[in-house]
Design brief:
The complex is a heterodimer of chains A (354) and B (264). Chain A is an all-alpha fold. Chain A has 14 helices and 4 strands. Chain B contains 10 helices and 10 strands. Chain B is globular. By secondary structure, chain B is α/β, with parallel strands linked by helices. Classes of the chains: A mainly alpha (354), B alpha/beta (264). The structure holds adenosine-5'-triphosphate and magnesium ion (MG).
Chain lengths: 354, 264
Amino acid sequence: MLYREAGQFKTSYGDDQAIFPIRQDRIGVAIILLAAYLAIPLTASPYLFTSILIPFLIYALAAIGLNLLTGYCGQVSLGTGGFMAVGAYAAYNFAIRMPELNLLVVFLLAGGCAALVGVVFGIPSLRIKGFYLAVATLAAQFFMDWMFSRIKWFTNYTPSGSVNAPPLSLFGFAIDTPAERYYLILAIVTVMALAAKNLVRGRVGRSWMAIRDMDIAAEIIGIRPLRAKLSAFAVSSFYAGIAGALWAFLHLGSWEPLAFDINRSFTLLFMVIIGGLGSILGCFFGAAFILIVPLALNQIPTALGIPISTAMISHLEFMIFGALIVFFLIVEPHGLARLWALGKEKLRLWPFPH
Amino acid sequence: MTATGGRRIGDVLLKVEDISLSFGGVRALSGVSFDIRKHEIRAIIGPNGAGKSSMLNVINGFYHPQKGKIIFKDIARTDIGPYDAASRGIARTFQNIALFRGMSTLDNIMTGRLLKMKRNLFWQALYWGPARREEMEHRAAAERIIDFLEIQSIRKVPVGRLPYGLQKRVELGRALAAEPELLLLDEPMAGMNVEEKEDMCRFILDVNDEFGTTIALIEHDMGVVMDISDRVVVLDYGKKIADGTPDEVRGNQAVIDAYLGVQH
Ligand SMILES: Nc1ncnc2c1ncn2[C@@H]1O[C@H](COP(=O)(O)OP(=O)(O)OP(=O)(O)O)[C@@H](O)[C@H]1O
Ligand SMILES: [Mg+2]
C-alpha cells in the first residue's frame, strides 16, 4: 500500500510527461542522489571508489551511449570500445597539445571527435541492418585498435605505445584523490544521463524508436532515415567518447590501445542486454550487475569455505553471463529494467492480485 | 449518409495521370488516371491484386512509377519521395498495420506530429524552455486526437499489446496527428467486426466533416464503400475499369464482371 499513486492527480501534461510522475519514485531518486553525492563519498574506502564506484559510473555512461543506438534506434553496434578509444586518445592529444584547455572542454572535444567518427562508421547503416551492420561496426573496432597502436602520432611517439594522462585540474583545483575523481565523474554522468532521458522522451527519441520499430512507416511519416540513424550514431558515440576519456583519464591514468579492445565492446553490449534494451535506468542496472557478479563469485565461495580455483571462477563468470544473455534475449529483451518495472507494478496493486 | 450535405466538394486536390508501374515482369498499374477533389471521400476498389495498394504507394512517394504524373496541389511530379509527400500534407495508414509496436499509443500519435516539431537536439537534451513548450503544445494536440478517437484508456499502453481493432484506430490517429490535407486509408476496416466497422466509418466521416480532410480509401466491404464515398474508382489487373458515383459504378457491367471473375 505504500507504493500507490492514488490521490496524486496530474493537473498538466507537463506533470504527466515528467521523468518520474509518481511521488514515491521521486522520493526514491532523491534518496539515491543524496546517497551518491553525500553518504557514499563520506563513507567509501579508496578501494570502493577505484574498483567499483568509478568503473560503475563510467560503464553506465558508455552503456547509455550504446543503448541510445541499439536499444532506442535499433542499430546493433560492436564498435563501442573503438568509439571509447577515439574519445580517450582525442582527450589525450587535446590535453597534451593544448594544455591551457579546461578539462571539461577537453572531454567535450573528445566526445565531439568520437561523434564524428561514429557518423562515418554509421553510414553503412543506411544500407545494411542487423547482423551485417554489427559486422560493419566490428570493422570500426578493429580499425581503431590498429590506428592507435600503429600511428605513433596519436600516442605522441611514446616508445612503449602506452600513454599517461596529464595531471588533472578543474578551475584551478587539482583532481587527484579517488573521491575527487568520483565527484567529477558523478556530476558528468548525472548531467548526461538526464540529457539522454530528455532526448528519448522527445522528438529525437521518437524518431529513433520509429526507425527501430518500423522503418518504412517512419519514412512515410516524414522521418528521414539518414538523419535519424546518423544522429543516433553521433549521440551514441559522443557518449562513448566521453566515457572513454573518463575511463582513460580518471580510471586508468595510463593506458594502451588494449584497454579499449573488442572485449570492452562486448561487455557493454552485455550490460545493455542484461540491463534492458531501450531503458536509461537499465544501463545502471546492467553496469552494476556486470561489476558485481565477478566480485560475488570471488567472495561468496571463500566466505562459505568452499574451495574454488580462480580458473573455475572465470569459467563460472562466462557461463553465468552467457546463460543470462540467452535468457534475457529470449524471455525478457527489456532486461532488468523491465523486471524492475514489473515489480513496481505488482507493488502498486499489492495486496490485491489485480 | 452520402455526404455532400454540410461540406462542399472543391477543386481537384490530387490528380494522377497515366501512371504505369511494374515490378520486373509484373505490371501492377498500367496507364491509370483519376483525380481526387478537395473534401471528398474517394474510394478505390477492385479485386485482390488489382493494384490498389500500389496506387497509394505511388501517391505517397513510396513506389516510383515508370511513367505518368502526380499532380498534387497544382505541382506536377513523376517521382516524389515519402518525405516530400509527408511534408506536403499526405498521410496514410497501411493494409497490414505498420505501427511502432514498442511505443505507447501516445508516443505513436506524437510521432505522427514529428514533422511539425522543430527544436533541435541540443534544446531537446535540455528539455527546457522552447523545447518543453513545444512538447506540451503537441501533447495537447495529440490529446485532442485521443479524445476524438475515444482511446483515452490506452494512452500509455504499448501498441503491440492492443487488440487488432484498436491498433487500426491508433494507426488512424497517428495519420491524423500530421493534420494531413490528403489522408490515404488502405483497408481501414479489414478484419473488423460489425461494431468496430461502424465506429471506424463514423470516425472517417467525422474526420472528413469536421476537419475537411480529403480521404482516399481502399475498402473491400461494398456496403461501406457505397455508404460513405462520394466517388469510386475501380481497378482491375492494374487498369482503371470504371470511375463515378457509387450508383454509377454499381451498375457498371465491367465492374460486375471483374468481381464475378469473368475471363478477359
Ligand atoms: N513491392 C512489390 N514487389 C513486387 N510485386 C509487387 C509489389 N507490390 C505489389 N506487387 C504486385 O503488384 C500487384 C498489385 O498489388 P497490390 O498490392 O497493389 O494489390 P491490391 O489491389 O492492393 O490487392 P489486395 O486487395 O490484395 O490488397 C500484385 O500482383 C502484387 O504482387
Ligand atoms: Mg492492397
